[in-house]
Amino acid sequence: MDLKLIWSKHKVRLIALIVLAGVALLWLVFSPTTFKFLHGDAQQTLREAETALSERSYQKALTLYQKAMLIDKSNYLPYLAAAEIYSLKNQPQNALDLILQGVQNAAEKKELYLEAGRLSLALNDPQKAREYLLHADQQDFQTHLLAGQTYLVQDNLPQAQKMLSAATTTQPTDPASHYYLALALVFDDPQKALEEAKTASERNWEGKAKALSLQQTLAEMLAAKNDLFKTTLMCYALLAAGYPQPTINPLKAVLRQDPKYRDALILLGTVQFKLEQENEALSYLNAALQIDPAYAQTSLLLGQIYESQTNFPEAQKYFEQASELEHLNVTFLEELATFYERREQFTQATDTWEKLTANEGEVNLTKIENEIHLAFLYLDKLHDLAKGGDWASQLKTASDSDSLPLPDADLKSRIEDLDLWFSFSQGKEKEALEGYQTLVTQSPYNPLFWYHKAKVEEALGKKKESKESLTRARDLDLTGEIGLLPQ
User: Fold this and answer.
1) Would residue 404 be called left, alpha or beta, if left means φ above 0 and alpha means ψ between -120 and 50 degrees?
2) Residue 13 banded pLDDT, cuts 50, 70, 90
3) Do residues 335 and 321 lie in contact, with contact meaning Cβ atoms separated by under 8 Å?
4) Per the record, a Pfam family (predicted)?
5) How many CB atoms lie within 10 A of CB 476?
6) Class of domain 1-136
7) What is the 3-state composition of the chain as percent helix, strand, coil, each rounded to the nearest 5?
8) What secondary structure letter does DSSP report for 91?
């Protein structure tokens, strides 16, 4: 349901994609090969693709870019634009396949190799990423930045430092290069790492929060007196940033000095879990549990591992144990609630969400989103119109009276969606459809609104309209959420 956060996550990429679409059109207009297409529709195709993209008609844009590739295989930009659509739709393998097709056909290949490197890294194949990056522009900032990240993944910190230092030299004002350089320097020069993290955290960019977190962790580490604690904090910094491999040997060194160091055991268990070494992870986490059975994080991690192994009884035991140990902590309650949902234990799930919303205290965006989610669970999974309707009514009243803590248009539209869905659940199909026709006009890019409109139209026997609405919902869906709902 967290569609606002999903859109925020992809907003920068979408803007860049629209810019790329415009560049592709300019390339065609000013290319010396333009004369080939005086009788064709290459320019018109790219214009239509750019328009479709601005309307977030992703499938139409993708089809048009593929048509542009057939007209002129040598233009690399349609390959990049089409691949970026696949990336937006969380289909990195399809994106990579298309980029490699472009490598075979396009005249200019360096940008394509750079993108192939980025996608391979996203697909957890750093070796392939390095191979592709060797064919990218070796003086380019993005090449240095991606190569540095690749070396970080592979635990080659000296090479990571070299590449990322080059990136900071090429573009000294770019915060990302300073952030990743800080990570590469954590073990070798923590003071310098702190300075780089501070530089990254002082600038406004999408990674500002994680740069600030890294800065705080490094400051705490440098102030610490205990060497084992220092090393563990360094490893935590890398693991929190998504780089588990470089932490293995340092954590094992800590445990050689103190085999009962709880935090090192938990971190190493987490690292092994991230690297899909689940039996090793269980070994470390069970050792940590023996040392401190009251530490909820250990139980939570054990629950996650057992669930990944489809040992659901053990998973449930540890998820419940974690929430009992920290019964006022909403993080552990949320983990338990979502586990119950995945197991389709919806009565337990709603009970847990009720506890969670009661414990959240001050009304904020997260609390309201959880209440919306809870209301939909009552309506869709338990078919409890009384409780679902009660939540829908409370939220609608708050929205209509402008008493929401954040008078956000997107949040208000999601509450309107909930209210309309409640009307539909009560059998008020025509009233709900009128509301959805207005809602998708006001908020045309929310896939869930289109999905709900499709289901209402289906109930009214409007098969053609329902199919069109469902197609639009699938096209707008960037997370795969719509595909998991009843079709």
Assistant:
1) beta
2) low
3) no
4) TPR_19
5) 22
6) mainly alpha
7) 75, 0, 25
8) -
Q: Are 339 and 321 in contact (CB under 8 A)?
A: no
> Are the CB atoms for 359 and 333 separated by under 8 Å?
yes
Domain map (residue ranges) of the chain: 1-136
Distance CA 267, CA 247 (A): 9
Q: Could you give the CA distance from residue 280 to residue 290 in angstroms, rounded to a whole number?
A: 16
Contacts of 300 (CB under 8 A, 6+ apart): 318, 319, 322, 332, 335
SS3 406: coil
**What's the angle, vertex CA 243, arms to CA 237 and CA 248, rounded to 5?**
85
Both tokens assigned to 227: 């060497």
3-state secondary structure of 226: coil
Contact 442, 435 (CB under 8 A): no
Residue-wise DSSP of 27-86: HHHH-TTGGGGTTS-HHHHHHHHHHHHHTT-HHHHHHHHHHHHHH-TT-SHHHHHHHHHH
d(CA 98, CA 79): 7
In this predicted model, what pLDDT tens digit does every residue of 100-142 receive, in sequence order?
Answer: 999 999 999 999 999 999 999 999 999 999 999 999 999 999 9
pTM of model > 0.85:
yes
Tokens 């399809």 belong to residue: 94
Residues 6+ apart with CB under 8 A from 322: 296, 297, 299, 300, 303, 332, 335, 336
Q: Are 267 and 285 in contact (CB under 8 A)?
A: no
SS3 460: coil
- What residue type is 78 in one-letter code? P
Residue 216 and residue 235: Cα distance in Å, rounded?
Answer: 14
> Residue 382 corresponds to which tokens in the numbers above?
């338990």
